[in-house]
């Protein structure tokens, strides 16, 4: 039933964990404004804010497919 989560959850998690400093997980999920904010935060904090997408990536992996879809695909929640 939750086909979108299977297509988006794992890639978004991997992007968040590996290249979160580029906010690619945000852009991949369609959150352009949040992606730009994340990049700006990373520049201002000299990369310290990249912990946010790293944690998000881990959270994506441990969420159920339904919870991921309800929160990030249908609910359009841009942040933790």
Q: What integer value in Å does the Rg equal?
A: 12 Å
Helix content: over 70%
Shape: globular
How many strands in all? 0
Low-confidence stretches: none
Strand content: under 5%
Structural classification: mainly alpha
The largest sheet, given as strand count, sense and whether it forms a barrel, is:
none
What does this structure look like?
- With 80 residues, the protein is an all-alpha fold.
- The model has no long low-confidence stretch (mean pLDDT 88).
- The protein has 5 helices and no strands.
- It has helices spanning 3-19, 24-28, 32-44, 51-62, 65-74.
How do the helices and strands line up, and which of them pair or pack?
Elements: H1 3-19, H2 24-28, H3 32-44, H4 51-62, H5 65-74
